[in-house]
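Figure 2 data, in text form.
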Amino acid sequence: MSINGRSNQNLKLFLQLLLIFAVSRGVIIGVYFVYKYAFGDTGGFSDIFGRWDSVFYERITTKLYTWPAPGDPQADWAFFPLYPLLCRGIMIITFWKLPVFYVCSVVSNVCIFIASFFAVKLVRFTGMTSGENDDSYFKGFAKDGLMVAWLLMLAPYTVYFATAYTESLFVMLVILSFYFMKRNLFLAAGVTAALAGATRSTGVVLIVPLIMEMYRRYKEEKSEGEQKSLFIGDIIKKPFRLLSLVIVPAGIFTYMLFMYGFTGDAWAFKNVQIAWREGDHFPVFGVLWDFCTGSHDGEGQLRYMIIGWICVAAIIFYIWMFFAGLKTEAVFGLIMLLIPLTSHVMSTPRFIAGSFVMWMGWYLALQRLPRGLKFAFTVAGVAASVFLIGEWMGGSVAMI
């Protein structure tokens, strides 16, 4: 494709995504006004959307990291620095004249827009759009990979991508890393993975799909007669591929080094998690058993039981994705889910949505469903998303 042709295609995609973005944000704003009218909530937009983790990100943006107040176990050390540092950069450029919540929200929305752009390009590059043979469903609003953008902007739990949370930046970096991996641009994939590790601790998990994609490329080169050495030897002989792997942990290691200097504990970000997730459960299997069976005693038992079964469903879906051809994506998503399941089910739906790969699986599944089921799942997904936006506005702990 010529440069002009590629530019025209990118411009067309940009304009299509603008429409999707406008519709999705229009839905959020619409639900906001309906909620305020129905329940008489006097809080402003920043009050209703700037809750929970966003409070910490706003505080880090303005004050950087601090020691918690006496008797407060929830230190801001649990929150990784790249997102609030980006927001702080915008605040500095604008001379601290803008409200920090809206600056953080703008950063999040720009990131999810960029993420959607490259997500569409990713599914197109990998050939996933070739199965879109049902024009009555995919034509126009969802054809040629656009459905994955709709999922990122309006699927359940994606409300986190629209407010002052780190999820949008993390999703963007995950998508970029996968995009570069699929195009065999491994050094670029390693750099974006390192940035993801500076955004959330689980970003370091991107080293696993990076190795898998390197192995895929190694097998291709071997079948073409370009390769005779073993896989490990091949990586060692190719400095840029080796550097790609070495650089992935740089993000999390940098933050650990900072934590060591600031608190004296390189693992402070992990150790402070007990302030949010208490309980003694056998990792993964014990956690799922206790929460899915309702054996967990305490506040939110029913809520946690539902979330536990959502996790089970996600694990089954990742297994399906693996055998459906999305091996790298499925392995990444599964590891990303198993890590929080070592202690609790809290926030796992948000983590599932924020790993991105789930939406590639949904995109593929929608292609393979009969027309009626495609429509039903789409309507159900939008309805669930609207309901969860309302839950957020109502301050439901189900959204924590």
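Caption note: The radius of gyration is 21 Å.
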